[in-house]
Amino acid sequence: MALPNDAKAQEFALTSTAGKPVVLSELLERGPVVLAFFKVSCPTCQYAFPYFERLSQLHKPEPVSFVGISQDDLADTQAFMKRYGVTFTVAIDDAQRYIVSNAYKLTNVPTAYHVDRDGKIQMSSVGWARKDIEDINLKLSMMDPAQQQHPILKPGEEVAEYEAG
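Above: the chain sequence. Below: its structure as tokens.
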């Protein structure tokens, strides 16, 4: 199972699809981090990632980083990003050894973590649970009490409650 809430997030250094370093401790200097692990062939990941993109856009002005962590190669990951409209940073885990995925004790994808700026996991979500993404949105919105909460889901939008990863 995934790392539990209140656990210390595991440090990592990966390379983004743009060829830039992605280091957790450096991201945490800016603020909280939302990590979302995925495989391009995973139907639940394909369903979830447009919502992670929407969440990242809602919180773009805030000091929060969104990082996708792909378990696939660069070309397949870039194709996934284009197809599903992912514009936030995506890093590549070692597709042979899954070093970072294993450090986070992944059993399924997608798995998402909300890590606070102290490096503590505030929330983890395995698979797709609509409530989890709404809770992450709420926690991020509460960082600035003056900030109005923006709903992640649109009125009347049909969104599955839960999909196993």
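The chain has a mean pLDDT of 90.
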